[in-house]
User: Fold this.
Amino acid sequence: MDLKSNEPFWLIKDGLISSYPSLKSDKECDVLIIGGGITGSLIAHQMLKDGYNTILIDKREIGNGSTSATTSMLQYEIDVPLFELIRKIGKKGAVESYKACSESIDRIEDLIKETKSKAGFVRKQSLYYAAKKKDVAWLKEEYKARLESGFKVKWKTSDEIRKEFDFQNTFGGIVSKQGASIDAFKFAHELLRFNHARGLEIFDKTEMKTVEYHKGFNLVSTVNGPQIKAKKMIYCIGYESKALIKENFVNLKSTYAIVSEIDQNKFKNISKTLVWNTDEPYMYMRTTDDERLLIGGGDEDFSDPEKRDALLDKKEKEILKILKKIKPDYPFYTDFVWAGTFGETKDGLPYIGEHEKFKNSYFVLGFGGNGITFSVVGMEMASRFMKGKKHMLSRYFKFGR
Assistant:
């Protein structure tokens, strides 16, 4: 393919999968979900399963926010290494957070079967390699922490990585058995279509304007005019929550990704492996379900979309320079290059739960490199919240922690 696109790969590949009407009349519901990306679609699925009359709205076309830009690597690993997270929040919270993300990958596979998804879900191992010699010591500490916590991991030497993956200039790394990849944009659409047929009401191009809090319900006015009366609201708006919640609880980052056709003869085991490294910011790599090579990285602080997108050419070169280190002779011809925005928290954990300033409401904000698995954890948590029950991870994912 000769065209280099600055649109997210998934939007070009999948096109406009489904469209929904905007809200044109007043509505009432048990649960109103704000946000129609992968998080909102997962939470909507859970709410329908639990028997709630549910409405979902999005100010854009469905899935056209961060979900269209995600690289959709499904890993249990959190951006903060396990051994470091143990020091930050204690062993119980750290290990249970990692285990919840691991179990989320199994849960996604169950959802794939339930919805008869064609979103390219593939089980994969992951390779986390040391990009510099000085990283080996702490990466071995991370390996030990995971092994002691019951995760299926193996340590690979640089020679073993060269033999198994044909990567040069690595200094050893961790191979984890649990991982997968998916087309999250397509999967979000499939989930919504599945639940729309079961009674979920969906309205895109419908932006929340104001919320009035009442005893037992909220009254939401939209920019278009109509109102929605909801007993509960669940915000699934990712990094855009930064504009809604005034305290400084998350740092916004820009990340960059490139996609090309792949010469399978010059890679070993790449189609069944997720790859990332210890660089700061780290590089990550996977194949897509149509057998292209997707590489991302170059993260930096987000300022505004124009400045973020102006760096596309520079970041493409940075990412390819990292690829050149481990694959010196591999010619990469970029077909797609794009940028996305995500949130980074102090401990790598999401924010899932209540906020004191938003009554009758919950937030499911799956920040970090594995936001999709956090969103799956949010399904169980939101289900319990709606029933007035507690969840053991709430204390670690709460606001003000």
